[in-house]
Design a protein that fits this description.
It contains three helices and 13 strands, in the order αβααββββββββββββ. By secondary structure, the chain is of the alpha+beta class. The strands form two sheets. Strands 1, 3, 4, 7, 8, 9, 10 and 13 form an eight-stranded mixed β-sheet that branches. It has a five-stranded antiparallel β-sheet with strand order 2-5-6-11-12. The radius of gyration is 17 Å and the shape is globular.
Amino acid sequence: MKPSGLRLLLPIVVLLSLAGCSEPRPGAESGPGKSPVSVRGWIADIELPPSDMMMVADPVVALQQKYAMFRDTAISVEGVTYVSGAMAETGAFIMLDVPPGDSIINFQPPGRPDAQLKLRQIPGSGDVMLPGLLIRGTAVVLKNPEDAMVRVPGKGTERKKLDIPAFVGDQRIAVWEVPFAELGDRREYPTPTTRPSVQIPTVK
């Protein structure tokens, strides 16, 4: 069943505080600042070393294990103690109350090293959409950077592309001013349009 809105977020926030945030870091913020940002998207794949892929010969079982890895991946924001968010089995995620400007999103797959994604110059009250993230070791990259964007609320009734910089890693992404009503989905999980790949090495 597809999760909807924040109904799934409330019971998971406590788990994220334990699994994703751990103990508060010195100087960490205790809550959201002004004009918080929402960050949404999905993981397209978590690349595994050949040694791990060799352990599962059945592609269906391997795919099920990847979905389980998605579900158990913790997410947090570096230096921020409390952020509402959750990860779905499909790899879709949502994070609310992320500070605007520069921030670091931590992805913590089970049994794998932490991977970080840096956001820079994100405008306040923005909704950051990050479709198709690839986790490669300790790095997170956009599979299709042209599909990533930031939406900010506008006062008009038309969409308008703004000439202001916003970055995911070193990749500049588009910033759009959109009608306020269009942002009604910023508290909902996005629907992934890509699925994880499963490559089973063949032994000759």
